[in-house]
Specification:
31% helix, Glutaredoxin, globular, 3 domains, FAD/NAD(P)-binding domain, eight-stranded mixed beta sheet, alpha+beta, D-Amino Acid Oxidase, Chain A, domain 2, seven-stranded mixed beta sheet
């Protein structure tokens, strides 16, 4: 007899996005089933950088501490270096071309710390996914099923009916799901549903080599990535980016990944026998003992799905967008997709909101991910500007580029001028490694369900992506400020929790708004945490007063994802009507 499972949400895909969706739904009290066709989590390091916005999300959902316990501390990855090589004793070997503070480390630390309750971290998917799987299973092991594959599905008036096979036993069963999150990397659901991935693809074949070696004698203890640039850089084997992968961090990292870029029509990209000698040559360490774990190929894309919702199926993560790894937005954006979608699903499944709220998922996330994909492609292309800035001439004879490197490191006025040019040029890569505004400054620009616009102008965005301007304007991420709650330090982000509650921030005399929120909560079957700053919470350092952008009688309504849904700059004449109307709009219940 075949088994049938009735479930509110089916998640297809057990990578970072799918597992995060499971964790979020569990915390939100929504039953679900996750199926992943592979028997285990990722066997490749893949993405590794977890930015501040992602760590804020994981902090809210009780996962951040587990990641920080094993992830790379900011002190061990807060710089990027450009070098000619790690070893060697030639005239041009072991030369540092430039170093840059990155990811909120070193000189950036004070500014990044002021804008968020968390720091970024570094933890490759090879290790992150098992951690997320353990967290998901802790919240309900029966919900997580690896080595299970969705064979077929059909959309009906009441949701999606899927056929799933247990690949261990070949047993098939039926899943009746109200909604589906397709976090399958775009391998099955999107193509079959006719979703088009729009944008350039096939630009570069990236060859990534994951290996173990002892490089403690050569590695800089603060560096996450070292870019190797040398006169042989015209060859795909002659330049590359090397990343520490832990599990011990800093110079004592045991594992590493080196990325080489090839033209898609270059047959040399499949010459894996050349990997070890080419690595030794690139690093100028001819006697280096190393163990290669895996060589992987992946095509560089900048593609975004033309539709993120097909009936009751929602695409998320790589199924909805894929971009170059520059700026590290891929996995982070996927996790943020799941964060945006799951609280909305929870509100609809619980009956508080209408289907109109679910339509805002694509409306909000697609523009943000498209901007991120464009930014990543720009940052990737900008590395050719760096080549030009240090004097590498495309197509030039080797002797010409060798001469350019000798001139770059020469004494005297010419060497000074060339190094100044190189520094100016390489600093344009701040768009990749100091993309603070790109990471936490995005906002949702729609007016309707989920966000009620107030007619105000958005704050300026940073043309370099580096300077974040906080704002309480509807659609924006709630600015972080530390507050005091009866002797405990909490963030403004802690006013909402991980169970789907809304937050209402007022001044010290927010009693009228609090009563209005209670009426709205009763009417719509929701929960609202009221935070009266100046009464319940103390703004001891005056930080919130500088950020709030409302008067003493105003109020700010915060969504469960810590984005601002609505605000009133001053006290309204009829707070109850105003608050009820705001929730009607946000929940799509006009």
């Amino acid at each position: 007899m075949s088994t049938t499972i009735d479930i509110p949400v089916l998640i297809i895909g057990g990578g970072g996005c799918g597992l995060s969706s499971s964790i979020f739904l569990s915390n939100l009290g929504i039953d679900h089933l996750l199926v992943e066709r592979h028997p285990s989590t990722s066997v490749l390091p893949k993405a590794h950088y977890l930015n501040q916005r992602t760590m804020e999300i994981y902090r809210q959902h009780g996962v951040a501490d587990a990641i920080y316990e094993v992830g790379c501390p900011i002190e061990k990855f807060g710089q990027i270096r450009w070098m000619t090589s790690l070893g060697g004793d030639g005239v041009l070997d072991r030369k540092e071309i430039h170093r840059m503070d990155a990811f909120g480390g070193n000189s950036l630390r004070e500014r990044y710390d002021a804008d968020s309750p968390v720091t970024a971290t570094n933890y490759p998917q090879l290790r992150l996914e098992p951690l997320l799987r353990a967290e998901a299973e802790k919240r309900g092991a029966e919900r997580i099923r690896y080595n299970h594959e969705v064979l077929d599905w059909e959309q009906t008036d009441s949701g999606v009916v899927a056929t799933v096979v247990n690949r261990d036993t070949n047993e098939r069963f039926t899943v009746n799901a109200r909604y589906v999150i397709a976090a399958d990397g775009g391998k099955s659901v999107g193509p079959r549903e006719g979703v088009a991935m729009v944008g350039p693809t096939g630009m570069v074949d990236m060859v990534s080599t994951h290996f173990t070696a002892d490089l403690s004698e050569y590695w800089d203890d603060q560096t996450l990535i070292t870019w190797f640039l040398n006169p042989e850089g015209e060859s795909s084997w002659g330049a590359g980016a090397m990343v520490q992968m832990g599990p011990t961090w800093g110079r004592n990292s045991e594992e590493w990944v080196v990325h080489f870029a090839f033209r898609p029509d270059d047959p040399e990209r499949f010459n894996e026998e050349a990997i070890v000698p080419r690595l030794r040559e690139l690093l100028r360490l001819p006697d280096l003992t190393l163990q290669v774990h895996k060589v992987s190929h992946w095509i560089l894309d900048r593609i975004v799905a033309d539709r993120w919702r097909v009936g009751d199926i929602f695409l998320a993560g790589d199924a909805a967008h894929r971009q170059p790894p520059t700026t590290g937005l891929g996995l982070n954006t996927g996790i943020q997709d799941a964060y945006n979608l799951t609280w909305k699903l929870a509100q609809v499944i619980k009956g508080s909101a209408t289907d109109a709220l679910l339509d805002t998922y694509e409306a909000e996330r697609k523009p943000v991910s498209t901007d991120g994909a464009d930014w990543a492609l720009m940052a990737f292309a900008n590395h050719t500007v760096i080549d030009a800035g240090i004097g590498l001439t495309p197509g030039a004879p080797l002797e010409v580029n060798v001469a350019a490197f000798h001139a770059l490191f020469s004494d005297g006025l010419l060497g000074d001028a060339l190094r100044a040019r190189a520094e100016t040029t390489i600093n344009t890569q701040q768009a990749e490694f100091q993309a603070h505004d790109v990471e936490i400054g995005y906002h949702y620009a729609i007016d309707g369900a989920a966000v009620v616009a107030d007619g105000s102008a958005p704050p300026p965005r940073s043309a370099t992506g580096t300077i974040y301007t906080p704002s309480t304007r509807p659609g924006h991420r709630l600015p972080h400020a530390w507050l005091d709650k009866q002797g405990d330090r909490i963030s403004t982000h802690d006013i909402v929790d991980n169970t789907g509650v809304f937050g209402l921030i007022t001044g010290s005399d927010g009693s009228a708004w609090a009563r209005a929120a209670e009426v709205a909560a009763d009417k719509f079957g929701i929960r609202v945490n009221v935070a009266r700053i100046g009464a319940d919470l103390a703004d001891e350092h005056g930080t919130w007063a500088k950020l709030r952008e409302i008067g003493d009688g105003g109020a700010i309504l915060v969504r469960p994802d810590n984005h601002i849904a609505w605000r009133s700059v001053e006290l309204a004449e009829d707070t109850e009507h105003t608050m009820t109307a705001a929730f009607e709009a946000i929940l799509g219940r006009h």
